[in-house]
Structures are given as structure tokens and as C-alpha cells.
Amino acid sequence: MTDVEFPTSLGTSQADRITLLGHDLTSELVGQVSFGELAFWLVALRRPTPDELRVFEAVLVALADHGYTPSALAARLTYTGAPESVQGAVAAGLLGGGSRFLGVTEDCAAFLAEALSWVAPQVPASDAEYDELARRAIRAARERGSYVPGLGHPVHKDGDPRTPVIIRLADEAGLRGPHLRLFEAVGRVAPDELGRRLPLNGAGVCGAALADLGLPLETLRGFALLARTAGLVGHLAEEMRRPIGMQVYEVVDRNAVYVPPED
User: Fold this and answer.
1) DSSP string covering 142-202
2) Residue 198, Cβ neighbours under 10 Å: how many?
3) Is the sign of the CA dihedral 219, 232, 92, 152 positive or negative?
4) Ramachandran region of residue 183, left (φ > 0), alpha (ψ -120 to 50) or beta?
């Protein structure tokens, strides 16, 4: 069927060359473009500026690993059961990227973008206006029975160390835009609105920073997973060198307590 076409703006291959994003892969990209730059370019279909790349790669580094998270444990335990399937172990770790881990990056960006849409095409002109918009967003979330993404962390109770660094880097690059400013406002007004103090977490600030880069909101979870893939491969390499998966399994198994089902 020679009349069928499947258009793509990404990559194509011929017998003697590979073309990616309109450039010859081997002569124009390999060795000349970083992986982070390429990842941005593949999604945005434009090459990032040096400042954009600095913030983007900072986000990838910030999300790469956070210790023995559920995703890391899922990858390690899957490898314990199927050491011949590294791809399965990586996939197992990525499948848990949802509303509590990793997925918060996209969820927070969407939450902020929705609030900003209420005042579009304008953006708040002062911290006071951002604070008022943040209050509206938090109240709307509570009214519909949903949580405010980007608030709270199971470990960093008094402040996520990643948050101020990402904000500072974006500010230095001239990329501290409306999503980040609204995210900061959420942190300022949340204690009064929620009755308790919760830190602005790293996944949330990364989502705000990516949104300010103009990347499609629907792709942001993919970038969080891209970053975490590097961390998961690191965990699997460590599991090969110094395994803990069987020990984790045995601790849980030996401490399992049978509870009769309720009638």
C-alpha cells in the first residue's frame, strides 16, 4: 500500500543515514547535543535556550532518585524475582508514578495552570494577587474533595531542600514565571487555608518549573518518569552489587500476621 502515509516530525531512517528532528543524527547531533537537550527538543520540537536547558536538566536531576521509594523497591523486588528481566524491573518501578509519587509533577502543573486560566489572558501583577488566586485554587480543590498537589512530603516535613534551589535557578535564568510564582503563593497561604503547615515539595516545584518552560502539561509526567528511569537503573545496578530484595521479602514474609476475613 504505497499511498498510505504516516507523518512524523521526529526520526526517520534510510539505508545510509538516520535523520532526527530534521538533522543528520551522526554528523549533527551525536556528540554535540546532550541527552537532556534532546529530550526537551523531541517534545517541544524546538531547541531549548541555554537558560531553559539549565532549568530543565536541574529538574531531571532533582527527580532522578529519592532513596528507597516505592518505585525503587518495586524495581528491586521485581529484579529479585526475575533477574533475567531488567526491563521488567525498570517498568515495575515506573508503573507506580501516580498521585503520590512522581505523578505529582504533572498534577501540580495542571492545578496551577487551571487556576491561572481563571484570570487569563492576564497574570497576577503582585504577590498579593498571586496569594488571592492561590486561596481560590485551594478552596476550589477542597470543595471538590481533592488534595492540593505539591504540598507535603513524607520525609521533608520542615521543607523540601529541592524547592528553593529550583526556584533560585529559574529566577537566575529569568524563567520564574506565573506557575512558579503561583506555587510559591500556595505555600504562603496554605497554612491559613488548611489549618496546618505543609512544605512545598520537590515534585511540585519541578512541575511548576516545567510548565513555565512552556512544555505541554500532558507530557510532564513523562519527564518525571524519564528522570526516575536513571535512578531506577542505578538501584538495579546496586541490587546486582549488593542485593537487599530478598531480605526485604523475608522481613515482610516472616512478619506477616494472618487476620481472618470479616463476615
Assistant:
1) HHTT---TTB--SS-TT--THHHHHHHHHHHTT---HHHHHHHHHHHHHHHHHSS--PBPH
2) 16
3) negative
4) alpha
Q: How far, in Å, CA of 76 to CA of 93, rounded?
A: 8
Is residue 234 within 8 Å of 71, Cβ to Cβ? no
Q: All domains of the chain, ordered by start, with CATH?
A: 19-48 (no CATH), 104-218 (1.10.230.10)
Residue 21 corresponds to which cell in the numbers above?
528532528
- Residue 17: count of CB within 10 angstroms of its CB: 11
- As averages over each run of 10 residues, the pLDDT of the chain (263 residues) reads 84 92 94 96 96 98 93 96 96 87 89 96 95 97 91 80 96 97 96 90 95 96 95 97 96 94 81
Task: Name the residue type at position 246.
Answer: M
| pLDDT the model gives residue 1 | 54
